[in-house]
TrEMBL record:
Pfam families: DUF6594 (PF20237)
Residues of the DUF6594 domain: 32-192
Region annotation (Disordered) ranges: 222-241
InterPro entries (UniProt xref): DUF6594
Bias-annotated ranges (Polar residues): 232-241
Coiled coil feature spans: none
Protein name from the UniProt record: DUF6594 domain-containing protein
Source organism per UniProt: Ophiocordyceps unilateralis (Zombie-ant fungus)
PANTHER family, alphabetized: DUF6594 DOMAIN-CONTAINING PROTEIN, DUF6594 DOMAIN-CONTAINING PROTEIN-RELATED
Length: 241
C-alpha cells in the first residue's frame, strides 16, 4: 500500500510579492504625464476653472434665442386666420407654427441642459488657496509645463475643487500646524534629511518642498513613506530664508 502525504496549501513568498510595483511620480516623463500623476495623488489638487463669464455669455445667447422664438410664435398666433387651428392642435395645419414649436422644444431642451450643467458648476466648492499655491510652487520649481498652460491657476476666484469638502475646522488646524513647522522648525525644512524618504516618491527639486498633511492614504498606486502618510493634502512650499 502506498501512502501519499499532502502538504497544506501555503503561499510562497514569491506569490505574495507578485504584485505590480508601485509607480513613483518621477517615473513619469516630465510634462503632462508627471503633472497628471502628481494631481492623482491628492483629491484637492483636482482644480478647474468654472469659466463663469463664458457660461454667462452662452446662457444669455440661448435665453435670447428662446425669447425671439417666443415672440415669433406669439405673432403667428396673432395672425392666425383659422380659429380652429388655435383651438384644436390636432387640426392645426399652420406649417410655420408647427415648425416653430418643434424648434422651441429643441432649444428649450438644450437650454435646460445647459442651465443644469451651469448650476452644477457653480455648486462646486471653491479651491483652497493653499492647494493653488502648492501647485504653483511645484510647477515653478520643476518647469514641467509651459507657463501659458498653467495660467488657469491664476484665476483664483473662479477656480473650483472637484474633491468633496472635509471638515473645515480640521483643515484649518492642519494648515496652521503645517505653516508653523515650515516657518520655525528648520529640521522639517531640511530637504536632505527630514524629507529624504519623500523625495523617492515625488520629484522635489531644490527649494521646492513636498509633504503631506493629515488623513492621507496611498492614492492611485503612488507610494508615500510611512512617516508622511498622515497627509491628505500634498503641498509644496518654496523656502524663504
Amino acid at each position: 500500500m502506498t501512502v501519499q502525504f499532502c502538504l497544506p496549501f501555503w503561499n510562497s513568498p514569491s506569490s505574495v510579492s507578485d504584485k505590480p510595483p508601485t509607480k513613483k511620480i518621477e517615473d513619469y516623463r516630465p510634462g503632462y504625464p508627471r503633472y497628471a500623476a502628481l494631481l492623482s495623488t491628492n483629491g484637492p489638487f483636482f482644480l478647474c476653472r468654472r469659466f463663469n463669464k463664458l457660461r454667462a455669455r452662452i446662457l444669455l445667447l440661448k435665453q435670447d434665442r428662446l425669447s425671439m422664438l417666443e415672440q415669433r410664435l406669439d405673432q403667428v398666433d396673432q395672425e392666425e386666420s383659422s380659429a380652429l387651428f388655435l383651438g384644436k392642435s390636432r387640426a392645426d395645419r399652420n406649417p410655420e407654427r408647427i415648425s416653430l414649436q418643434s424648434e422651441i422644444e429643441t432649444c428649450l431642451a438644450d437650454y435646460d441642459k445647459f442651465a443644469e450643467r451651469t448650476y452644477r458648476s457653480l455648486s462646486f466648492a471653491p479651491a483652497h488657496q493653499r492647494d493653488v499655491e502648492s501647485l504653483q510652487n511645484w510647477l515653478s520649481g520643476t518647469g514641467c509645463l509651459a507657463r501659458e498652460e498653467t495660467a488657469y491657476l491664476t484665476y483664483g476666484e473662479e477656480l473650483a475643487s472637484l474633491a468633496p469638502e472635509h471638515d473645515s475646522a480640521v483643515m484649518g488646524i492642519e494648515a496652521w500646524v503645517e505653516s508653523q513647522l515650515i516657518r520655525f522648525y528648520r529640521g522639517f525644512r531640511n530637504a536632505d534629511k527630514s524629507l529624504e524618504p519623500f523625495s523617492q516618491c515625488v520629484e522635489r527639486p531644490q527649494r521646492v518642498y513636498l509633504f503631506r498633511s493629515l488623513n492621507s492614504t496611498k492614492r492611485e498606486g503612488h507610494a508615500f513613506p510611512p512617516h508622511l502618510t498622515s497627509a491628505a493634502h500634498a503641498s509644496s512650499h518654496l523656502q524663504h530664508d
